[in-house]
Amino acid sequence: MPINSEKPNGKAAVETKTGRPRPNQAWPLQDLFLNRELTWLSYNERVLSEAGNQDNPLLERVRFLTIASANLDNFFMKRIGGLKQQICAGVREPSADGLMPRQQLTGCLAKIASFETLRESCWQELAAQLAREGIEIVTLDSLSPPTRAELGQRFRDTIYPLLTPQSIDPAHPFPFISNQSLNLLVSLRYNRRGETTLARVKVPVAPDTPRLVPCGEGNRYVLLEELVRGNLDLLFPGMQVADCTLFRVIRNANSVKNAEEADDLVAVIETELKERRFAPIVRLEVARDMPPVLKGRLAAELEIDENSDVHQTEAMLGMSDLKELLRLEIPALLFPPHHPVDHAHLQQGQSIFQVIRDAGALLLQHPFESFSTSVERFLREAAVDPDVRAIKMTLYRTTRESSFIEALVQAAQNGKQVAVVVELKARFDEAENIRLAEMMNSAGIHVSYGVVGFKTYCKAILVVRQDHDGLRRYVHVGTGNYHPLTARFYCDIGLLSADDAVGQDLTELFNYLTTGINPRRRYQKLLVAPHRLKKVLLEKIRREGELHSRLGGGLIRFKMNALEDPDIVKALYEASGRGVRIELTVRDSCRLRPGVEGLSDNISVVSIVGRFVEHSRIYHFRNGGKDQYYLGSADAMKSNLETRVEVLCPVEAPHLQRELNDLLDLCRDDNWSAWDMSSDGSYAKRRPEGDAAAAGSQQLLGELARVRAAASTRSKKKRKAEPDGAQA
User: Fold this and answer.
1) Cα(32)–Cα(42) distance, integer angstroms
2) Using an 8 Å Cβ cutoff, are 682 and 49 in contact?
3) pLDDT tens, 152-206?
4) Are 245 and 290 in contact (CB under 8 A)?
5) Under a CB-based contact definition with an 8 Å cutoff, are residues 334 and 57 in contact?
6) Other beta carbons less than 10 A from residue 655's beta carbon
7) Which of 55, 279, 324, 716 is the right S-S partner for 251, CB 3.0 to 4.6 Å?
8) How far apart are CA 636 and CA 646, in angstroms?
9) For residue 102, what is the enclosing H or E element?
10) Strands 581-586, 555-560: parallel, antiparallel or unpaired by DSSP?
11) Contact 269, 449 (CB under 8 A)
12) Alpha-carbon distance 40 to 631, whole Å?
């Protein structure tokens, strides 16, 4: 009984909770699907809500505020920029929910306006509470003369040399304004003649020149632009400052380059990065005190619509810079320090390959279990182990200082065959990935850039080792990037395994990635996109409905970042109509409408927003009592399933399946950081009741990891204490 959503008047036969067919009924697109952009904006509202959550420590609330602000900037660069491109190109194709690009843009801007109001109010509240803790952002005028004099000298020594004032007049064309830069628009008047002119001064925010400038004693700061504003007489001697206001621009980050026609992919990416600097502006933010005449002229010079593309605010521009406050070491205002534990099986001194071989497979839960002593250790040992013959790895995001890069270079120097598939088009990390690729190439590592036309998004490592009984493949498949910094605050899972079939599958996958030849490779266990994964997921969803009709007890549980693919959503609706219980934990965008009578009665959706970023992806099918669990980096998004190389790996060991089951249960039962989704796309946060609900799923997962580690330590001590030959 397929749900036909191709046309607004399509008929759909669905079933109720009891499996009884309902009469055919029309399901307009807007009734079947929520809008992707609007549901993401709802997620960012949930992030902002944590900034107003009095249960969070004060500086952690500031952290949530900065994350929500940075998220919004990225949304403008990627999603709003993309919608504007569609409008300019005359795209007439609606999204899955039936909205045209201009309708989506209008809806997004209205929702963003509401968000901005909430954010300004939130910052005012936080600023007042910070002031009570002795943390203040003050004006120059409020400082004592000695403090102002000290700041003036600091300005002349460390900031003034960095400034380059630029006039705006017939002899000086309007200067280029870089993306997300802070700028002062200065209106100047000659004292004698009264003529006015405009100038632009870029505020030089950088790691060495922070936005928050310490002043006087304690934790008091002046904004860098305020300090520049107070010393304009040095930049424009002999002139009178008639007006000076702050503005900021955000540029489109989408590229239209066709990589499939490129002879040199690196050159194409480098060209894209250069062009991105000059990409169209999608948003202009100006201070509330900017005169209307100057605002209009600025919009005209930047060639944007003054009514729709300009946001005027009393709040601080570039609010993500408040992350500088998080450097303050005030324990009472921060979450308790987080210390990951070593995985229970990796506490012993034996080789990690022996541990994996003996265990068969290990499930890793980050950041509760240490990334350094598991995944990084896996690669470090492979680099120096004389029995390791080859290492193959995918890299989407990492850092130059990563131990992964050091280990890969060391492995190549030790004569091992090392191949790395680098995704050059990892958004906003393109330049860094090009530098890393060049560095690894020069070290003798075989670097490739994946398959033309598809992003390489899967996270996998393959180590080929000469064991005593022949060559053996050891693998790691994960849900997160091989990035040691994000591993500290992203909730991800991974599998270390010596499963021969999985190892053979990864061999096939890497051969495909390094050659691009023969996409129709045979895989025994891995589900690989773009050629097979989506088809198999749809088959498994349909099968769950068929098994439920015969046996009952049907259950589907997904945990992911986003649920956007219309075909997956329709398949879930159909399974719900057959009576299958469907539990979805979706962090941000979700097109599916839960709890609609006759359509999704049996579907519930929750979103977890907590201290750590929810990033793991798990797919669970009850399968008539023969449970199937998969993990990987693939969200149920059209882009992931159709235009990226993705991998889902089965987790087959019963004890590891129980761990995943516990994880999913904790997310569903979370009464601290879970939000329940309604059929209209709105969310309501659960309210904890009593002491039993005083911890969220993330805290409980951390406790479980510590319990497993402690039990392993006790077991190890017991074995050491036993006399030789004693039997446990």
Assistant:
1) 18
2) no
3) 999 999 999 999 999 987 777 889 999 999 999 999 987 666 778 899 999 999 9
4) yes
5) yes
6) 9
7) 279
8) 11
9) helix 101-132
10) parallel
11) no
12) 23
Q: Which residues contact 349 (CB under 8 A, 6 or more apart)?
A: none
One-letter amino acid of 657: Q
Q: Is 514 helix (H, G, I), strand (E, B) or coil?
A: helix
Other C-beta atoms closer than 10 Å to the C-beta of 114 total 11
Report how far apart the first and last C-alpha atoms of the chain are (Å, whole number): 57
pLDDT tens digits, 391-419: 999 998 877 777 899 999 999 999 999 99
Sign of dihedral through CA atoms 515, 521, 526, 528? positive
CA geometry: angle 376, 382, 385, nearest 5 deg: 135
In this structure, what are the phi and psi dihedrals at residue 627, rounded to the nearest 5 degrees? -55, 140
For residue 140, report the phi and psi dihedrals to the nearest 5 degrees.
Answer: -60, -40
Mean predicted confidence (pLDDT) in 547-556: 96
Burial class of residue 727 in the structure, from the number of CB atoms within 10 Å of its CB (0-12 exposed, 13-18 middle, 19+ buried):
exposed
Tokens of 332: 């009472």
- Output the DSSP codes for 652-710: --HHHHHHHHHHHHHHHH-SSSEEEEPTTS-EEE----SGGGSS-HHHHHHHHHHHHHH
Quote the tokens at residue 130. Answer: 């910070």
Q: Which residues pair with 201 in a beta bridge?
A: 184
With a CB cutoff of 8 Å and minimum separation 6, the contacts of 173 are none
Please, which residues have CB within 8 angstroms of residue 97's CB and are 6 or more apart in sequence? 29, 30, 32, 33, 34, 35, 36, 591
CA 283 to each of CA 89, 179, 255, 346, 373: distance values in angstroms, whole numbers, following the listed order: 19, 10, 17, 50, 44
Q: Which two tokens stand for residue 589?
A: 């965008």
Which residues are CB-contacts of 710 (< 8 A; sequence separation ≥ 6)? none
Fill in the DSSP letter of residue 95: -
Q: How many CB atoms lie within 10 A of CB 422?
A: 23
Walk me through the domains of the chain, giving residue ranges and CATH numbers. 11-32+529-686+697-710 (3.30.870.10), 134-324 (3.30.1840.10), 364-525 (3.30.870.10)
How far is it, in rounded angstroms, from Cα 286 to Cα 611?
32
Count of CB atoms within 10 A of residue 462's CB? 23
**Helix-helix angle 36-51:101-132, to 10 degrees:** 0
Question: With contact defined as beta carbons under 8 Å apart, do 610 and 532 qualify?
Answer: no
DSSP H/E element including 407? helix 403-413
Q: How confident is the model at residue 661 (pLDDT cuts 50, 70, 90)?
A: very high
